[in-house]
Design brief:
single chain; 2 domains; seven-stranded mixed sheet; four-stranded mixed sheet; 39% helix; binds pyridoxal-5'-phosphate; pyridoxal phosphate binding; PyrdxlP-dep_Trfase; transferase; Acetylornithine aminotransferase; identical protein binding
């Protein structure tokens, strides 16, 4: 169905930071499949693990134990503050699972479930997750929405007082709003949010579908905040491009899911969890997290220099290698189109924000090549 406004190229091959179209043209890819191919395209380490698994077992029901699934759950709980993992196939499904778990908590206490989310957030396209998403353009045309959601403005400390009035079961948020414009949460705002949630016994759910798997410079973004969430959802980068999602929770909530509470035919599939396990292993074994911070500094400095030369660029913002350029004109998509002409792929996050998501393995030289192509695109967009 015609659910995407597609750009006029067909991508047929990828390797590292580059993709090729069906005519053989090579593009520098600063989208990484929207924060999915975090290790670049077709990373050897993950490919070898997948090829090996292809020879062993493709699928078996969750009615049986699955080895790579158990290994990935062990690995994820070892490197985070969570105790248990539920596997699914996408970000929206991970958030659905989180919403169900939050409701299970309210139900177990005979309370009315209420989840507070934030304006300009993005949590997915299923009915519950589009309701959680604080953007009218995502919700319009799909009423009736799901019950039990309230919204507050992001990064607004005074607005948090509402939480005392509403006493929600949970608060759900992104630590850098991705689709909503690449907006990092302020540390002081998170501190206040945590205090209020603790006082009211509200759960904290972080949606790390976009920010997770090294994207912001730590394995997960919450690790840069004074914050121990009760629930975390991940997906995008977890499988290096292979579809997989997961909902992680602390034991004091995860126990509410027992046999029959929730399920997924493909969730935790041997191939998907092999991709997930090898992706995490690669990141942890290769000091990638230190390099991300160096590349982030390099790219941010170069972008700030560029921003000072173009009056339509207002701000460079983001975390790690999730970077946004806020424009004071709604020409983000023009810049994207001009970039394609210069064999560079980039993204928008709304009409006035350019979003850059290079692979976490991007080299210094590739960042310099990006700057060369991006400046040409900006010059052309300026004339439009
Ligand atoms: C992409 C995204 C989702 C939805 O993930 P899908 O895999 O497309 O369902 C949810 N939350 C955030 C923060 C995202 O960036």
């Amino acid at each position: 169905m015609n659910t995407y406004g597609r750009f006029p190229i067909t991508v047929t091959k990828g390797k590292g930071s580059y993709v090729w179209d069906d005519k053989g043209t090579k593009y520098l890819d600063f989208t990484s499949g929207i924060a999915t191919c975090n290790l670049g395209h077709v990373p050897e380490f993950v490919k070898n693990a997948l090829v090996n698994q292809l020879d062993q077992l493709w699928h078996v029901s969750n009615l049986y134990h699955i080895e790579p699934q158990q290994k990935l759950a062990k690995q994820l709980t070892k490197v985070t503050s969570f105790d248990q993992v539920f596997f699914c196939n996408s970000g929206a499904e991970a958030n659905e699972a989180a919403i169900k778990l939050v409701r299970a908590k309210a139900n177990s206490e005979n309370k009315q479930p209420l989840i507070v989310t934030f304006k300009k957030s993005f949590h997915g396209r299923t009915l519950a997750t589009l309701t959680a998403t604080g953007q009218e353009k995502i919700q319009t045309g799909f009423s009736p929405l799901v019950e039990g959601f309230h919204y507050l403005p992001f990064n607004d400390e005074d607005a948090l007082e509402k939480l005392n009035e509403w006493q929600p079961t949970a608060v759900m948020l992104e630590l850098v709003q991705g689709e909503g414009g690449v907006v990092p949460a302020h540390k002081t705002w998170i501190k206040k949010l945590v205090e209020i949630c603790k006082k009211n016994n509200s759960l904290i759910v972080v949606d790390e579908v976009q920010t997770g798997i090294g994207r912001t410079g730590t394995l997960f973004a919450y690790q840069q905040y004074d914050l121990e969430p009760d629930i975390m959802t991940i997906a995008k980068g977890l499988g290096s491009g292979f579809p997989i999602g997961a909902m992680l929770a602390k034991e004091h909530v995860s126990y509410l899911f027992g046999p029959g509470s929730h399920g997924s035919t493909f969730g935790g599939n041997p191939l998907a969890t092999t991709a997930g396990l090898s992706t995490i292993q690669y990141i942890l074994n290769n000091e990638l997290l230190t390099t991300i911070s160096d590349r982030s500094k390099q790219l941010t400095l170069l972008l700030q220099k560029i921003a000072s030369q173009y009056d339509f660029i207002e701000e460079v913002r983001g975390k790690g290698l999730l970077i946004g350029l806020k424009l004071n004109r709604e020409i983000a998509s023009t810049v994207v189109l001009e970039s394609i002409k210069n064999e560079l792929l980039i993204l928008t996050a709304g009409p006035d924000v350019i979003r850059l998501l290079p692979p976490l393995t991007v080299s210094e030289e590739e960042i310099l090549l990006f700057v060369e192509k991006f400046e040409k695109a900006l010059k052309a967009a300026k004339e439009c």
